[in-house]
Amino acid sequence: MNEGLFDQGLFGVDEEEKAARIAANAPLAVRMRPRTLDEVVGQDHLLGPGAPLRRLVEGSSPASIMLYGPPGTGKTTLATLVSHATGRRFAALSALSAGVKEVRAVIDEARRRLVRAGESTVLFIDEVHRFSKTQQDALLGAVEDRIVLLVAATTENPFFSVVSPLLSRSLVLQLRPLTDDAVRVLVGRAIEDERGLGGSITVEQEAEDHLVRLAGGDARRALTALEAAADAVGAGGVLDLATVEATVDKAAVRYDRQGDQHYDVTSAFIKSIRGSDVDAALHYLARMIEAGEDPRFIARRLVIHASEDVGMADPTALQTCVAAAQAVQLIGLPECALNLAQATIHLATAPKSNAVTTAISEAMSDVRKGAIGSVPAHLRDGHYAGAAKLGNARGYRYPHDVPEGVLTQQYPPDDLVGRDYYEPTGRGAERVIAERLPKLRRVVRGEE
Q1: Are 125 and 138 in contact (CB under 8 A)?
Q2: Is the link from the previous residue into 403 a cis peptide, with omega within 30 of 0?
């Protein structure tokens, strides 16, 4: 007789009861995992009528898929729904622990079931980007022959981390971080649903708002925090903001992405960078990130600021900020906080110039006032038939024909000859431009 079963209190308990007991002891995020497609919240771009993922879950599409997205967006849930909705067997592997041997064993079992009983297998592989090339290659034949329907999940861009042959056999679907509204629905459901807390506690609005902010688009994070806080107050208790803060060891950041705090903190962030206070700038950056601000919004502000307040005083600032914006798209939070911080530090410590801003503002102001004028004939396009008859491009002088690479020639319309827009400062790299620009203007305008 197996003493281990006595120790666990499971001797004589049927399999269904065992499963029920295990499920009841599972984390809240697992217990609240959607059982049907209708319970899934978010990812509307993939689950709408006729969308690829809906067709796959409903069994009308046999394609293998790569689910690419940040944690807590429903990758495992959707993989499970694919197997349940289509009546297929479900097998799961984690790239963190499985090797080629385990992959081949699952494929061999899937092949036996398909031959003997016609039963198809959905193979879910979590963190597939952690598989080596050899491990990924081991999947190719089974995916190609549909021995398994592969549903692979990754938090990294599969076009960088998954071998091309496997990608070409799969449909890549990108999952997006959940919106605050979606997370709020899931939190509310977990509070009331019998699978969750069953209405055993009351949650104050401020506490719920903080749980939503903590999530950062990650449903699992929100439900884990809710479960920990609910345990702290116990059945019949009231969950308030202070309890959530104490439980998760993270203070609530007073920040409304649609309200005054959003605009006030953003304004303070930009003005701190402009004022070269790198420490204040990093403080406001941290507040935005911790409050769940969209990192793409922060990246856009940095790219704008690179030209608005640094400009040609440090031309590399724009390169840094564009690279940070690309990193945000590529890797997302939390890692992209490093890229945003680097761009913030670069801008705050760079020499400042608003000469680019002033130059384009004045040029656009003149255009709006009607100071347009005709393009000088020698600058017009001369490549089409009949252009020469109109006098287009006649008399144009090619600057590369002279050793200096710059020569006297009229470029602006007649009414704007001599009008200066760009006035470089003497700060940073603009110091060199400030010395060179007057000489360029004199040569171009024939003043020397």
Answers
A1: no
A2: no
CA distances to 217, 283, 328, 330, 343 from 334, in Å: 11, 16, 10, 12, 16
Domains and CATH numbers, the chain: 32-174 (3.40.50.300), 180-248 (1.10.8.60), 260-349 (1.20.272.10), 371-444 (1.10.3710.10)
Q: What are phi and psi of 443, to 5 degrees?
A: -65, -50
pLDDT 10s digits, 60-96: 666 788 888 888 888 888 877 876 766 678 888 888 7
* pLDDT tens string 274-299: 999 999 999 989 988 877 788 899 99
Reference 69, options 172, 138, 210; nearest CA is 172
In terms of residues, how long is the chain?
A: 448
Three-state SS sequence of 239-260: ECHHHHHHHHCCCCCCCCCCCH
> Measured between alpha carbons, how far is 119 from 333 in angstroms, rounded to an integer?
40
Q: What pLDDT digit, counting tens, does each position of 398-419 carry? A: 899 888 898 888 888 888 888 8
